[in-house]
Amino acid sequence: MSQRSCLSVILAAGEGTRMKSALPKVLHQIAGLPMVAHVVRAAEAAGASSQALVIGYGADEMRKAAAKFAPKAETFVQEKRLGTAHAVLAAREAISRGYDDVLVMFGDTPLIDADALMAARFRLAEGAAVVVIGFRPPNPTGYGRLIEKGGKLTAIREEKDCSAEERKIGFCNAGMMAVAGAHALKLLDAVGNKNAKGEYYLTDIVEIARAQGLDVVATEASFESALGINNRIDLAQAEAVWQQRRRHAAMLSGVTLIAPETVYFSYDTEIGADTIVESNVWFGPGVKIANGAKIHAFSHIEGATIGSNCDVGPFARLRPGADLRTKAKVGNFCEVKQAVIEEGAKVNHLTYIGDARVGARANIGAGTITCNYDGYSKFFTDIGEGAFIGSNSSLVAPITIGNGGYIASGSVITESVPDEALAFGRARQKTIPGKGKELRERLASAAAAKKKAAGADN
Ligand code: UD1
Ligand code: MG
Description:
Elements: E1 6-12, E2 29-30, E3 33-34, H1 35-45, E4 50-55, H2 59-69, E5 74-77, H3 84-89, H4 92-95, E6 101-106, H5 114-125, E7 130-135, E8 145-149, E9 152-157, H6 164-167, E10 172-180, H7 181-189, H8 205-211, E11 216-220, H9 232-252, E12 256-257, E13 263-264, E14 270-271, E15 276-277, E16 281-283, E17 288-289, E18 294-295, E19 300-301, E20 305-306, E21 311-312, E22 317-318, E23 322-324, E24 329-332, E25 335-341, E26 346-349, E27 352-358, E28 363-364, E29 369-371, E30 381-383, E31 388-389, E32 394-396, E33 399-401, E34 406-407, E35 412-413, E36 422-423, H10 435-457
Parallel strand pairs: 1-4, 1-6, 4-5, 7-11, 12-15, 13-16, 14-17, 15-18, 16-19, 17-20, 18-21, 19-22, 20-23, 21-24, 22-25, 23-25, 24-26, 25-27, 26-28, 27-30, 28-31, 29-32, 30-33, 31-34, 32-35, 34-36
Antiparallel strand pairs: 2-3, 6-10, 7-10, 8-9
This protein binds uridine-diphosphate-N-acetylglucosamine (UD1) and magnesium ion (MG).
Uridine-diphosphate-N-acetylglucosamine binds near residues 78, 82, 173 and 203.
């Protein structure tokens, strides 16, 4: 089948009023990626090398977004929303180039998987002209029913047009179809709008194809993969399904999730075998984790690379550009941004490392802050191999701490420190014997005098 050419036409012209949003519905995200981008990915994975995106509402915003998530896709504007068949025909120019298979997909059905699409394409390869993807929702109310005879699909009947007997059918139209490219335009052009809504229904091509003696069949996808999004409750349900699938995939690939239902992945999270993830961990986009890492509870990680056998958290925040090399450690209440933490380096407690390099095996004491920003520009801090930064130090960037450099705790370091040097950046301590007692007595008698004066006034 791989030699069959395939175009996917993704319908995404609707506004999605029930989302109650300024953002077009299909740009709402699941796992950090617009839902329509999930559809594009599924189509690609099913072998659709060309993509046509039919847009309408929020066309400019849609074009801008599509340039990012589907740079190769062509966009077609459906000026008036006259129905799903009309929407597919907005991409006439692409369809008429001639493809073996045309996949019609909905931008608001983001969980559709490549397997379901491949199964439909397979039936086209066997000779069907139209393959409808069906599913069995727990409650079929509201969906078009698939009417079959002898293994062939004869019609899609919308619920309001069903007989009592037909209404009992649990097999419903998921909305998506695979159509033989050779017949696609002829079938779509034959669709009329003589129905209650005055719309051009894509579903009508089933009966049109049958009348022409063409082969029409249905395949079955899981309920979850056919889940359509209309409102934010559906969106949350789709997110939950997506996360569940991803957690299972992670565990089957050798990742331990101690409390899987509390770990959130992004669409692009990469995580190696033998990594252990504790509870309540959130992975934003752009995270790559090698093998054998430990991610402790309540860590928030995005745009970060974590090397093998690293130790992160609990309560760590890794922001974009955090790059932890083998066996590095970033402990509790630490934030790392745009910084390389080299092999075996330790950033254990209450620290901010931003725009920096921490050399191999360096030890960063509790409360260390790289002061990287003066309100206008960002500056770099370079900490050498094996350096020791005493607790509660401020490193005012731009600055270099040499290899083996040693910073006394409580220092404010404003000048670079050479290799192996010891630097103090704090006032020298002065200790005066007996002065504490004397001070205490003076303060106590002053307080007593004040109290007495206040009593006399009353
Ligand atoms: C459709 C099916 C129905 C099926 C259901 C499953 C048709 C006629 N009906 O109904 O049998 O059970 O999906 O969810 O196909 N769109 C456009 N332009 C248009 C109209 C629609 O781009 O002019 C887009 C929408 O933005 C949406 C998709 O096509 O992404 C589906 O349209 P929608 O109105 O949701 O169809 P349903 O009524 O749900
Ligand atoms: Mg719908």
